[in-house]
Amino acid sequence: MTQYVAKRIRFRNGERYSVLQVPYGLPVHEVTVYLDKFRKRGRAANTVHFVCCSLALLYRELDVAKVNLLDRLAEGRFLSVAELNRLASAAQYRVQDLDADAQDESKSNVIHIARMGLRRKSGVSERQPVDVGTQASRLRYIADFLAFISDYVGSTLPKEAKRELKAESEQALTAFREHVPPVSRRAKLNSRVGLSQEEEDRLVSVVHPDSPDNPWDRGFVRQRNWLIVVLLLATGMRRGELLGLQIGDLHPSQPKLLIIRRADAVEDPRRIQPNTKTYDREIELTPAIMRKLWSYINKVRRKIKAARAIPQVIVSDEGAPLSQASIDKIFAQLREACPGLPVTLTSHVMRHTWNERFSEQAETMGLTDAVEEKARNSQQGWSDNSKMAAIYTRRHTAKKGREISLKLQERLDDKLDRDK
């Protein structure tokens, strides 16, 4: 089977892009043409890469079925119902090596003996499902690409063949889109929430550089990882915003910093560039946290010679800007080393935690819902009419709901007592 992979590339001007190719081969031309429309629309590099991964799935499945898409369309024929059904089924599952980055990271000479036994018994490797949202997005992009490539090739056919191909493709794709699953917004019981106050206190205690429970050995790593956790909890910023933070974004004499969107920054050497998804904004810190931040930069980070030429605040112990995968690894190590911390602990849980603490503080200060909403949107970089707060305040909202419900039940309790 041909190993089609989505590969990220970085141009000299800093622009990040993705191409579909076979290892050591040229990019697939028609996919490059299709992806270019996303590039012209200014879509984020991660969005383009997701589309490319979806098309890697398409091309691999067609290769398994021994279907050459361009040859088939050049004959004036579209994909059959059976072939489209096969694609829809494949879109349900995770295919790790569709992404060249994941392929590189997963290479290992070690195979667990239990997995070897399982493979011998089943004859196939285990397939893990993706979430419904990912499956739906894959199918939409695949359908859109198939409509695009059908028109693209159809334009070269004789008039009658072109008309027949268009009619056939439209009918087939209408049926194919029926496979797109509805993404329910009602299943909220297992939705991500922030840390409780006790869990937050435990986390801050564990990551303190002097803590005996701190899972890291090297002093620089301890200082940096502690600062990462503190800044995420203090500001509610995203992982990408933290990794994009530059020393020049810090106010030299006031406890303030800027969150700035720098898509395709030339000075950022990372192929997968962490980025800001929200509006630019200014965040104020307490003087104590700002002093710790400057102390890390001037006393800890400065000892890494290679880092002195790097504008990013958060760097590796080799002096390179830290990657998003490294942040994920930090929280994975925390989960493993500290059983008392939630198994769902990630950097994004810090953002949920900040929003819940924000709600609690707003309630203590007696802010109206309208004022609280505007204040939160300003701090998180959301638009004035954004409804994102509902996603990040589930625990606090559920708590208030329980309190109100119990108050209502207390009224019934009084009536039950009188009935006695």
UniProtKB/TrEMBL annotation:
<dbReference type="InterPro" id="IPR002104">
    <property type="entry name" value="Integrase_catalytic"/>
</dbReference>
<dbReference type="GO" id="GO:0006310">
    <property type="term" value="P:DNA recombination"/>
</dbReference>
<dbReference type="InterPro" id="IPR005144">
    <property type="entry name" value="ATP-cone_dom"/>
</dbReference>
<keyword id="KW-0067">ATP-binding</keyword>
<keyword id="KW-0229">DNA integration</keyword>
<keyword id="KW-0238">DNA-binding</keyword>
<feature type="domain" description="ATP-cone">
    <location>
        <begin position="311"/>
        <end position="400"/>
    </location>
</feature>
<dbReference type="InterPro" id="IPR011010">
    <property type="entry name" value="DNA_brk_join_enz"/>
</dbReference>
<keyword id="KW-0233">DNA recombination</keyword>
<protein>
    <submittedName>
        <fullName>Tyrosine-type recombinase/integrase</fullName>
    </submittedName>
</protein>
<dbReference type="GO" id="GO:0003677">
    <property type="term" value="F:DNA binding"/>
</dbReference>
<comment type="similarity">
    <text>Belongs to the 'phage' integrase family.</text>
</comment>
<dbReference type="InterPro" id="IPR013762">
    <property type="entry name" value="Integrase-like_cat_sf"/>
</dbReference>
<keyword id="KW-0547">Nucleotide-binding</keyword>
<feature type="domain" description="Tyr recombinase">
    <location>
        <begin position="190"/>
        <end position="406"/>
    </location>
</feature>
<dbReference type="GO" id="GO:0005524">
    <property type="term" value="F:ATP binding"/>
</dbReference>
<dbReference type="Pfam" id="PF00589">
    <property type="entry name" value="Phage_integrase"/>
</dbReference>
<dbReference type="InterPro" id="IPR050090">
    <property type="entry name" value="Tyrosine_recombinase_XerCD"/>
</dbReference>
<dbReference type="GO" id="GO:0015074">
    <property type="term" value="P:DNA integration"/>
</dbReference>
